[in-house]
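Q: Could you fold this chain for me?
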Amino acid sequence: MGKKFAKKLQELMDRNMLTPSELAKKLNLSRMMIYQYLNEISLPSKERLPAMAKVLGCDDQELSKAAFEDYKEKRIKRRGF
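A: Sure. Below is the predicted structure, expressed as structure tokens.
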């Protein structure tokens, strides 16, 4: 489901030397939620992306673009196009 987003998130976490637990704590999320993002189980809401970008030291658009591509792919698969 969230292949591009998961890859981008892992890349940014590596760049910032953050573990899933550390990122979860900084974002006030559960560690399980971060693991769901990393394992392509779910995608964050658009409201959550700016806070994630700030913690990860990147532009909002960097995460938004990856998430949008995954949302678009999911929608296409669901509709059968």
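A (continued): The chain has five helices and no strands.
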